[in-house]
Amino acid sequence: MGAEPTIGYKNPTSMQGVRVNGNRIVIVHNADELNRLISGKSVAGFDVTIAGGVSVRKRAEIVRIADANSVRVTNPGR
């Protein structure tokens, strides 16, 4: 049998929620949340993940806004 996970296998707190490219992940449920993120913070250090329950129409709107503001979307969908 292989080794079982222990506390030592966990990432440091500073690295949790960070992608390989060094950007933090932010979950967005609608276009308003994305607009608040864009206006409130510098977008350079964030990647946007669209929540799973978002419809195709709203997802397309979020992707359009993200592309216009040069924000990376990790799961743009179809």
Account of the 3D structure:
The protein has a domain at 21-73. The chain has helices at residues 31-40, 56-68; strands at 24-28, 46-50, 72-73. The chain has two helices and three strands. With 78 residues, it is α/β, with parallel strands linked by helices.
Brief overview:
Helix content is 29%, strand content 15%. It contains two helices and three strands, in the order E-H-E-H-E.
Helix and strand layout, with pairings?
Elements: E1 24-28, H1 31-40, E2 46-50, H2 56-68, E3 72-73
Parallel strand pairs: 1-2, 2-3
CA-CA gap between termini: 40 Å
Strand order of the largest sheet: 1-2-3
What is the strand tally? Answer: 3
Largest sheet: 3 strands, parallel
Low-confidence stretches: none
What series of H and E elements makes up the topology? Answer: EHEHE
C-alpha-based Rg, rounded: 15 Å
Helix content: 25-40%
Q: Proportion of β residues?
A: 15-25%
Task: Tally the helices.
Answer: 2
Structural class: alpha/beta
The 3D shape can be described as: elongated
What's the pLDDT, averaged over the residues?
88
Keywords:
single chain, 78 residues, alpha/beta, three-stranded parallel beta sheet, 3 strands, 29% helix, elongated
